[in-house]
Design a protein that fits this description.
By secondary structure, the chain is of the alpha/beta class. The protein contains eleven helices and nine strands. The C terminus is likely disordered.
């Protein structure tokens, strides 16, 4: 990565924010859904993929039924004890609308980097991750820090995560990203959300052709376009036989035994490298803003 970009600095800072998240998690675990509560986690963009990963992690940990949704596409006909809204900026219009919806639940918590904004002000509890806020439009350290915080709050042993992050931000990139024009990210379980986030980073930063799938579904059609210019990346838990099938197309595969969040850091760095090869400004990606705040007309569509 070229030096001097805010995005590069924020990617490199993740081990420090992860360490702080592990220290904070115990004090706010109750704000993130008590044992047995029916929980809905919502977000938009990157935060929606964080919500997807959070929901699966909570259910896998045995804490109770947990759904996730895009804030603009809420479930109908269901009730929840607790709604958790993930919003870096605390201003996203669709989340504000969701807080006024019938599924907003008895209790509402916001996970945010900017307390005092309309979304956190509309919630009962606020998980303040302001130390992980970003000046970049493209999110990197806020989503990963939120997930470290969540994993620790669920009781997972995350002691090795900080060191895994330190290695991920300084290691040589595993491939020359300029060899590829097609990027596929695959996950299983909670890492499906990470795969979607990795693909989004490649689109946002590098304006590149990127896709993401639950790994076993990749055989069901999408594998047809894989070939020699494809880079496939496992975010964790992907079956060896599926990776063998993807390699058989001529694609290059990245898979290792690192923690999935460390793998996501590598994907962030690959996206920035691809962008800089094209001469793109990763701090100011095309057509994007830090927060999506809709006009009255757009809100009613």
């Amino acid at each position: 990565m070229a030096s001097g970009t805010a995005t590069r600095a924020e990617i490199a800072s993740q081990p420090a924010t992860w360490e702080r998240a592990t220290e904070m998690a115990g004090g706010v675990a109750g704000q993130l859904g008590s044992q047995g509560e029916r929980v809905l986690v919502i977000g938009c963009g990157t935060s929606a993929f964080v919500a997807q990963a959070m929901a699966r992690l909570r259910e896998d940990a045995g804490h109770g039924p947990t759904d996730w949704a895009y804030a603009s596409e809420l479930p109908t006909g269901r009730t929840y004890d607790h709604l958790i809204a993930v919003s870096r900026s605390g201003t996203t219009t669709e989340i504000l609308q969701a807080l006024d919806s019938p599924v907003a639940a008895v209790r509402r918590t916001c996970v945010t980097a900017v307390p005092g904004m309309p979304v956190p002000d509309g919630c009962d509890d606020v998980v303040d991750l302001s130390y992980a806020d970003e000046t970049s439009i493209v999110q990197t350290r806020f989503p990963t820090t939120a997930l470290v915080h969540w994993r620790a709050a669920l009781g997972e042993d995350v002691a090795g995560l900080v060191d895994a992050g330190r290695r991920a931000v300084v290691a040589d990139l595993p491939v020359d990203v300029t060899r590829f024009d097609h990027f596929v990210f695959l996950g299983r379980g909670w890492t499906v959300g990470l795969a979607h986030e990795a693909a989004l980073k490649m689109r946002e930063c590098a304006q590149a052709w990127s896709e993401s799938y639950p790994a076993l579904d990749y055989r069901h059609g999408p594998i047809a376009v894989a070939g020699g210019s494809t880079l496939g990346v496992s975010l964790g838990g992907v079956d060896a036989d599926l990776l063998h099938d993807v390699r058989a197309t001529g694609a290059t595969i990245l898979d290792d035994d690192h923690d999935p969040l460390a793998r996501l850091v590598t994907c962030q760095r690959l996206a920035v490298a691809a962008a800089e090869h094209k001469g793109l400004d990763v701090d100011r990606p095309r057509n994007l803003t830090r927060s999506v705040v809709l006009t009255d007309l757009e809100e009613t569509r």
